[in-house]
Here is the input.
Amino acid sequence: MTTVQELAADARAFFEKAIRHGSGEEFWKADPSKRPDWVAAMIHAAHQDFGSLPDDYIYRLVVEALDWFEDMEGDYDELETSINEVEPDPSNAALVAWLGSHPARTTYVDDALEEAFANPVTSKRLPLRTYDLLWSGRFREIEYVYHVVLDALYARAKAVTVS
Here is the structure.
């Protein structure tokens, strides 16, 4: 039986770092002519809220998630729980750059704010700090992408087992 860890390693092999012409900035990409359909579907699902592809932050998260799950042991529930151990870059500059990189990211922060107001414990501690909300929003995106990757790995594992 093919494991999630093996599939994560297999999928990770389709990603490579490249240098953006002009800025010299590094980014991740996956060559569409080489990646299998299930990896393409995973990438598209991770970009769900962003309409157009690609988004550098999403690609980086997909690669980080594949690396994460390749190194983790356990069943689905244990791997899903392990996502809570992943933390966003806490620097204010990184959080602001993340938020400013795409308008859809404000939704993650808005969701964090709504949850804070709905929670009786945190609502008593208001006002919340801006960077706490940005961190929570960033974590929501991480959580979403890691779940997409984990679900894709498990679906592929089942498909390979059935074949």
About this structure: The helical segments are 4-12, 37-46, 56-71, 76-82, 92-100, 105-118, 120-123, 130-162. The chain has one domain: 4-162. The first helix runs from residue 4 to 12.
